[in-house]
Write a structure and sequence with these properties.
The chain has a two-stranded antiparallel ribbon. A two-stranded antiparallel ribbon has the order 3-4. The protein contains 20 helices and 6 strands. The protein has helices spanning 2-17, 26-30, 35-48, 62-69, 82-88, 107-127, 133-150, 158-164, 166-169, 187-194, 197-208, 211-245, 247-261, 265-287, 292-295, 314-319, 339-344, 349-357, 372-394, 409-418, and strands at 175-177, 182-184, 325-328, 334-337, 398-400, 406-408. Mean pLDDT is 78; it is low at 159-174 and 289-294. By secondary structure, the chain is mainly alpha-helical. The protein is flat and about 125 Å long.
Amino acid sequence: MESFMKEISTIKDFHRRYPNEPVENLEKAYKKRSPEERMQSVAAIDSMFTGEEGYGRFFDLTTLHEQYLNLPVHQHARRLTYLQYLDLFDAFSPPQNNIRRDQKKSELYFSYLKALQGYLESFMRRTKPLENLEKLFASFDKEFEELWAKEEVPGWEKEVANSASADGGAQGEGIWCSACQKGFSKETVYEAHLTGKKHKKAMRESSNTPATNGAATNGASHDIQRFKERAVAEREFRIKKLAAAMQTERGDTKVNVERKQGMTERERQQELEAMFTELSEGGAKEDESDSEGEDKIYNPLKLPLAWDGKPIPFWLYKLHGLGVEFPCEICGNFVYMGRRAFDKHFNEARHIHGLKCLGITNTSLFREITSIQEAETLWRKIMKDKKKEKTQAENVVEMEDTEGNVMPEKVYRDLAAAGML
């Protein structure tokens, strides 16, 4: 009550000091919008996202995927599918990404990183308008500055930098020619290069250049290389952080892509139309009380919902046997609806964990077994049979002592070691 009265006194004091201040027009804020205004807001939201983004639910990285595949470093490499790219677009270090450090300094790679960073930041701004994203991005920059000062940025650590800058910036090449500023992987190629006209000309030019100028040039070149490395590392770091902050959207995108790969073009168009209709008519359904009963989905049989949000047909429900219950005691008496879900659960983590709790390691032999007693009985029999086979294998070879007594090899070795033969 004290806080409430304090707030009232503050409001009265404000209006006492500003008596001519116009009152806020609450009618404008709470009045019902006309169909034209509603369509304008829907069109504004629709223009913010592409069709693949599903109004902010999924990523649309198809263009960036093509740009990634068209990089010169991937001309002779294995081409990643779009699903694989969704898993690896924020991986910049081996073994997921084998792009060498010297290849990362190219303009095309830098442009690709800039476009990917811009898309992720734009997507986050469009989907999370109420969050303080500037503060979040500033924390990313601060963290990068600290790691870069310590040379601990992932993929750009001190050990990597030393190996990359050895031999005057050879960038991992076998032999470096300082006159021509070129690396050679084989010694024979390097020896043939020494007799060429270009090398001799480069040697004459380098001998005519003062040493101080050469040192200054090398120092300036090193600074430029370091500046490029920092720019590339900063964008890679920012992309990793943005991808980590949107793991939910990333997972939903992978599921959506896998689902759409099994759909026809007509089904995809119907899904987009249904999504647009739902968004455009969402406000109208809230305002119209007469149609409130019609908007509710009539589902007395509790049938599963299809991709369009409506119950599946009853004949399809019966065809897949979704009304049949399959309990599993090993899974903690969990009930699976339908034969398909029941068959699939034998390879899932819940069932495998239940078998391991019973001391069963070879889970592939226990398919269709749901009872704990049956599983334990079968496991004891399997272990007994293995022990019997091992005993039989040891008793295959028979040995005979000097008195003609025949015995298994193991018994013979034990008696011989004890000196009892």
